[in-house]
Amino acid sequence: MVSGPQRHLDPTDDMLKDRLGKPAGPEDVHGNPLKDDDGNPRYHYQDGYVQTKEKIDPAHGPNAKERLGEGAYMDAEDMNRKHKCDSFSTAFNHDQDEAFMHADLHGRSRLNPHDTERQYIRFRPEDAGGTGSDPHERFRGFYVHPKYPVDQASGSINYKPVDFRGAGLLATYDPDGNGGHKLVTMYPEPEKGKNT
After folding, report:
1. What is the pTM of this model?
2. In whole angstroms, what separates CA 163 from the centre of its chain?
3. Cβ(105)–Cβ(122) below 8 Å
């Protein structure tokens, strides 16, 4: 299964947000979040970003939670493991099929044809060519606000749009069994210093 387009080109913005999941933190025996001395819920952090749970895999398609229930949180490629997502949920913009294609072609040009293992290719979006003046405007994505993960009045998750200035691309290729390689996934990797 090629999850690049399913997870990083085709999803709606809501699907990208669902992929991040819900902020996770310590809970009491009843499943209620533990609070700090000011009465605010406590959350788990890693590298300054809120850790999340119940991540819905966009590869399951729209309305995954309604159709699959708990299965929506499992990885579409391996239903025995929970779906993972970093601190950012990112994708190419909807009108960027050509940019995705150019990026894939550039990634393939950097593959080692003698390497029969999985290969990870990192590169700058501007190196991939394609159309458009600013390659970083080809992307979209979200992360959970580190300081205010949840709006206390409404209970809704506070998402921040990703700043893609300085972002790179990561393409992952597996051997295809015929002497070549197939794209497994490809996505923009934001610069953490620009997204706090």
Report:
1. 0.88
2. 14
3. no
